[in-house]
Amino acid sequence: MSEARIHVEVTYALPDKQRLIGLDVPEGTTMLEAARLSGIEAQFADLELDKSSMGIFGKVEANPAARVLKAGERVEIYRPLKADPKLNRKKRAEKARS
């Protein structure tokens, strides 16, 4: 008897390059495992899955290595922020006041 499989997606995006990979994984696969199985890390030179933040449909997951996926979910791999959004808003507000 073969093991049950589910369909999930893994996605990562840079300003000039994006990938969305659909794959079938065994039930019980975690977010991190699915990202590795997708092969997406090999498509982006600076992507390090073990150090990357991940989420499901825009909601950050604290522990991708433990979060088991459900059928149809999309693992999103997030880039590190180059600038703090709060600091940027504060700078824009100060500039608008002056």
UniProtKB/TrEMBL annotation:
Gene3D superfamilies, sorted: RnfH-like (3.10.20.280)
Signal peptide: none
InterPro entries xrefs: Mopterin_synth/thiamin_S_b, RnfH, RnfH_sf
Superkingdom of this protein's organism: Bacteria
Any Pfam family the entry gives: Ub-RnfH
Family under the similarity heading: Belongs to the UPF0125 (RnfH) family.
Designated name of the protein: UPF0125 protein A11A3_03454
The species this protein was found in: Alcanivorax hongdengensis A-11-3
